[in-house]
Structures are given as structure tokens and as C-alpha cells.
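Note to self: keep these together.
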Amino acid sequence: MMPATESQHEVHRTGHRVADLVVGFSAIFISLCSLALAIHHGRTMERLVEANSRPFIQFDTSNGQLRPDGEVARELSATISNPGAGAARIEEFEISVDRRAFSAWPEALQQLKEDAAAEHVITADSRLGHFSYATVAPSYLRSSGEQVIFRWNRDDSNGALWDYVDAARQAKRIVLKVCYCSIFDQCWVASTASFRPALVKRCS
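Structure:
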């Protein structure tokens, strides 16, 4: 009895060397195209995931608040919001007055008070009056989150200084800036001087 031998599959050849080479190179080309498409699809999906997790921080400032009775309260306020798709990790916050940087509102207001006194808008003993502010950094701001970070009411004792600061705000002498990151550690700098945040390597 003869033992059964395993048959081996042989590549079908056309008998023409050029045709065989064309078929072989075509198969390699199709494989490379499939690999390139798979890589491109993977990168596209990665960008889609990042886009669906990307925060977008913006500021809003105002010099009046509408009360329920219809009266407008004279109040300077600043709000930070995140209309983006993902949560924002806010690393740094800065207030600039004529390009002089401050990390908190009291110092920035004190500088504006000194500027107003130097310009003879107010006297050196003028009062700031009541104001409130919130800690901006470090903190997390969820998607669609919003936070009022500054409020300052105008009254008879601080009217001239309040008007001076409001004019400085409208003239963009006061710039609010934050550096924030996404959950993928992509970071941006947003400010009231520009609508579009600037991409940075990291928050220093």
C-alpha cells in the first residue's frame, strides 16, 4: 500500500513572465493601499475622538445686569464658560492691565486705581467699594459649564473709578487669559484679546 501524500497548492501561473509579475505587483499594491486606508481611518477616528473631547474656553464681560423687575444694575462682571465638547483643566489664569500681568483681581484693581489717580480721575483716597471674585485656576470646567469669576457694583462712592475701569475694559486695556488642557493633554491659551484659542505644547 502506498502512503497518502499531502498535495501542495501551487500558485497558478499564466505561463507569461510579464503577466505573472503584473499580477504579483498588483496584489502587493492592493495590500499597500488597504494598509494605507486602514492607517488613515485609524487617524481619522483618533481625531474624531479628540474633537468630541475638546474644550473651548471663552470669556464674557459686561457692565450691567438685568434685574427681574426690568431695571439694569450697574455692575462690572466677568464670566468664563466652556461651550466645547469636553471638560477643561484650567492650569493658569492671568489678568493683564496695559500688559502688566496679575494673578488676582485685587492686585489688578489696585493698579487701575493707581493709574486713575495718576491721571487725576480720582483722588488717592478713593474707595473701590464691594467686589467679589472666584478662583479660576487650578480648576476643572465641565462641558457647557459656566462660572462668574468677578462682580463689582457701582455706587456713589466708587462711581468715577468704576467708570474708569469700565472704559479700560472697553478699550481692551484689560485682558483676561487662561491656559487650559483637554483630557488628552492638548493645551491652549484663550484670552479676551482673541476669539480663537492658540494651541501650545503645555501650560508652563
